[in-house]
Write a structure and sequence with these properties.
Layout lengths: L1 H28 L9 E7 L5 H13 L6 E7 L4 H14 L3 E4 L8 H9 L4 E4 L12 E4 L2 H16 L4 E7 L5 H13 L5 E8 L4 H15 L5 E4 L2 H13 L9 E6 L2 H8 L5 E4 L5 H12 L7 E3 L4 E2 L1 H7 L6
Helix pairs in contact: 2-10, 5-6, 7-8, 9-11
Amino acid sequence: MKKGIIAGIALLGAVTMAATGCSGGSSAASGGSKGDGVVTVGFAQTGSESGWRSANTESMKDAFSAKNGFKLIFNAADNKPENQIAAVRNFINQGVDAIVIAPVVTTGWDDVLKEAKDANIPVILEDRTIDGSSDLYKAWIGDDFKKEGETAGAWAKQTLGDNATNMVVLEGTTGSAPAIDRATGFDDAIKGSQIKKLDSQTGNFTRADGKTVMEGFLQKYGKSINLLFAQNDDMGLGALDAIKAAGLTPGKDIQIVTIDATHDGLQAAANGEFNYVVECNPLLGPTVAKTVKDVLAGKDVEKKQTAVDQSFTPEQAKTALPDRKY
């Protein structure tokens, strides 16, 4: 009787060891997953400040879906850097396989990214960049913000630069990569023209703030404003209400160039209210998801991966609208 019991225990132990061995092999094969083949990813998004951001979030959620082999832990920081850093620390504490960040601002990332590195959790930057060491993240996937600004500025210089032109600027979130780079690109492109910048203030990439700041510009400068550069569509769309309320015609009395090329932005261009729209592609999810899997599998990945952006006149906007995905 005792011999039968001992034999049963030995057999159970052998089965348990075999099962443990299979589980360990599965974890290694999945490149950092927890043994069930599912890759857990923490995504620290900026917030939900614009139509562009909503499209970007949906692209990421679709790409990091369960059907694609992922478990996504999502956090939106309401455009507060401290919230975003806290979310990343929470991801580290949860022991996720990888972390994806769309940084609210460029600065203040060194400490938490070092913590992720010490925990052997790879970090991928999405959409926005940081000022920290490139050793702290595996790759960046996004749009060329400086080039977007250059494209918008080149249009302004070609269209209005030969005549005395007074411009106001609606900036994005202060300290963010797109706000900094788009301003640099635009200012570089209009050098040598007769475009004069009367004022430049942040509208935080939102329609509400875009409207409020534009109202202030109109109260201060009135009909002397000839050109508005809005660093995203939503601020430009908010500015439309302020311009119309002041008895002016957007697209004519004040020419408008924006960046993003969302459906609403292209509709404003098709209506003749925006004169030129530069694209910033938000559909980055598939490229980010592939990069995460490649990194976890030990493959070499490109450090900088840039999306292709277009630009639209009003006529081109009319053509693009029916097939616009965001």
